[in-house]
Amino acid sequence: xxxxxxxxxxxxxxxxxxxxxxxxxxxxxxxxxxxxxxxxxxxxxxxxxxxxxxxxxxxxxxxxxxxxxxxxxxxxxxxxxxxxxxxxxxxxxxxxxxxxxxxxxxxxxxxxxxxxxxxxxxxxxxxxxxxxxxxxxxxxxxxxxxxxxxxxxxxxxxxxxxxxxxxxxxxxxxxxxxxxxxxxxxxxxxxxxxxxxxxxxxxxxxxxxxxxxxxxxxxxxxxxxxxxxxxxxxxxxxxxxxxxxxxxxxxxxxxxxxxxxxxxxxxxxxxxxxxxxxxxxxxxxxxxxxxxxxxxxxxxxxxxxxxxxxxxxxxxxxxxxxxxxxxxxxxxxxxxxxxxxxxxxxxxxxxxxxxxxxx
Length: 359
Hints:
Layout: H1 4-14, H2 33-53, H3 55-82, H4 96-100, E1 115-119, H5 126-132, E2 133-139, E3 142-149, E4 152-157, E5 162-166, E6 184-192, E7 196-205, E8 208-209, H6 215-228, E9 242-245, E10 249-250, H7 253-260, E11 268-275, E12 283-291, H8 296-300, H9 318-328, H10 334-358
Parallel strand pairs: 1-12, 7-9
Antiparallel strand pairs: 2-10, 2-11, 3-4, 3-6, 4-5, 6-7, 7-8, 11-12
Helix pairs in contact: 1-10
């Protein structure tokens, strides 16, 4: 068995990278910048390899979500028929009682299903960034999972709490287009003002699962489906919710600067950066990055309109802001979580060694 000194030495080595992510090359005053950036790049490569192996697991994960939703709707139908003399009357999930019964309740089946970003600090070199990554401006709002199945559309937050139920023109989302049991749609959206759903990503459309397709293909399919269903973007007195595609550009300097000059129809919260090959996988993902608009000049050398500087009233650097944010929200990146687990494992080994020596 290794000596206590060896184990403690490993523990000291494991504590080197205590920041949220590896250091960005712009922060040259930090002596481990290049090593940390390489660790982040290596972690991205490992994640891409792992996602290929896990694609079937992700496919089944979201299939089970729909099976759960179908069972819930079947239970509603059974309860409605048992409590009514008119047994042959169709179930109307648009009634107030049926629609609001579970709103505000948490359902763990729908918790932790969204794909989440990391702070984009360890940025790929420009050639790789411009070739492999896309940027999406993202509105201020609520990150939600939208599930349309068996004639009703449900919205869940990332913790699985149901926020709303309504009819929509999404496949499976209203009585007229609910179709057969396998006709369902799942979208990743930002909810704004209670009725505008800005679409980030597509998980399934009309029963066709898309989790194991690369991001650029999923976005093509999402935009195509929304274009083919214009009524989704035009509310009426029966369908009051809107499903709106978000603009997107390649991470090329000119395209990003032009995008940042846009007068968006929403209040800009930040920028999401997707690697073109990332599959849709629940949880925090190193292939999906996040920056605030005012961070763009410092980290990407992308100029932005002066109005975005108001979001940094303390005039912090990106690193200072991110560290303060992570501390305030008790947030760890995947790399930090992995490092923490390794540290805990080494501590356990040291304790075992001490106990053996005492005996």
